[in-house]
Design a protein that fits this description.
Blueprint lengths: L2 H14 L3 E4 L11 E5 L3 E7 L8 H12 L4 E4 L5 H10 L1
Parallel strand pairs: 3-4
Antiparallel strand pairs: 1-2, 2-3
Length: 93
């Protein structure tokens, strides 16, 4: 499964829950996660999507650490089977 297919699945599953998985681009700040997931109840998290078995690059790891240090949840998803669990965890926070 390609990263784009996992990304489409994340968007669809977030929408089913009444939320959004918004594309996150930040001119001038490379390495930010691919999506910001917004769910009902003011739930927010950042999600980096990868093709199966792929790992984040060092700059992406740095950005994820920065976001976590600010108190934001950050997830790396490299398979469609992880999406339900990640969204459930976001809802539970």
């Amino acid at each position: 499964m390609r990263e784009s297919e996992i990304e489409s699945r994340l968007r669809a599953e977030a929408k089913k829950m009444g939320g959004m998985a918004v594309k996150f681009t930040s001119p001038g700040l490379d390495g930010v996660p691919d999506r910001i997931v917004l769910l009902p109840g003011r739930k927010i998290a950042f999600v980096e999507l990868k093709a199966p078995g792929k790992k984040p690059r060092p700059l992406q790891e740095k950005r994820m650490r920065q976001l976590k240090s600010l108190g934001f949840p950050v997830y790396v998803v490299d398979g469609a089977e992880q999406i339900g669990g990640v969204l459930d965890e976001i809802c539970a926070t």
